[in-house]
Design goal:
- This protein is α/β, with parallel strands linked by helices and 233 residues long.
- The protein has a single domain, classed as Spore Coat Polysaccharide Biosynthesis Protein SpsA, Chain A (Alpha-Beta Complex).
- 32% of the residues lie in helices and 25% in strands.
- Strands 1, 2, 3, 4, 5, 6, 7, 8 and 9 form a nine-stranded mixed sheet that branches.
- Helix 6 packs parallel to helix 8.
- The N and C termini lie far apart (72 Å).
Length: 233
């Protein structure tokens, strides 16, 4: 990967994803706007994930940690990184080749803090759905995000208190602070639907979403302060 004048750090958190990790890594390495570094944080995998990452040692900084959850893996990758822009990719998803190029072009607008793009969902072939597309939608997701490091620092790191919804919780904090974002019309990521998606594995943790929403509402109430008392004559 060649350094550009605007260095981008890409972070891939991974847990037991040897089957798909190589495709994710290669989709980063094939970017038409190459990032300055690619960091893979292995969150305690027990399969062949480490061996897959080892095939890319020329291009990838690999770090292993005992299993602590995706937020911890993301935060460790951020600590290791040095780019003035940050971007993230789940190990079972794939970037489109011009993802970073489109987003860096949009970042020419100095008022923008972060840029997203569209997601195309697709069925993994083992689901016997011919690997076909499953729809395109706006991608408010960490996998489509490109953000200035200084803007990310204003929001803070990903919360470790949730098994699901780590990005949703972070994004709510970002919007509460008024960060400026843009949704591109281009598809920038393909999200793989497969039998072992985290949302399927951790269905029992979906109460996290309610906790995230409640915490956001509580923060907004605190910012507004107590309601003015009713006026009397």
């Amino acid at each position: 990967m060649k350094n550009r004048s605007e260095p981008i750090s890409v972070i891939i958190p991974v847990y037991n994803c040897e089957r798909y990790l190589a495709e994710a890594i290669e989709s980063v390495l094939e970017q038409t706007y190459p990032p300055s570094e690619l960091i893979v944080v292995d969150d305690g995998s027990t399969d062949g994930t480490a061996a897959v990452a080892a095939r890319y040692t020329r291009f990838v900084r690999y770090s292993y940690q005992p299993n602590a959850g995706v937020a911890e893996a993301l935060n460790k990758g951020i600590t290791m990184s040095s780019g003035s822009f940050l971007s993230f990719l789940d190990a079972d998803d794939i970037w489109m080749q011009d993802k970073l190029k489109h987003q860096m072009s949009a970042m020419d607008a100095p008022v923008l803090d972060m840029v997203f793009g569209q997601i195309e969902q697709f069925y993994s072939p083992e689901l016997n759905k011919q690997g076909g597309p499953a729809g395109v939608m706006p991608g408010y997701s960490k996998g489509t995000l490109l953000i200035r490091r200084r803007s990310f620092s204003l929001v803070g790191t990903f919360s470790k208190g949730f098994q699901l919804g780590d990005f949703i919780e972070w994004y709510l904090r970002a919007t509460e602070l008024g960060l400026k974002s843009l949704m591109l019309p281009e598809v920038v990521m393909r999200r793989r639907i497969h039998a072992d998606n985290m949302g399927i594995r951790q269905r029992g943790q979906r109460a996290d979403y309610l906790r995230i929403l409640k915490a956001s509402l509580d923060r907004r109430r605190t910012l507004r302060g107590p309601a003015d008392p009713p006026q009397t004559d």
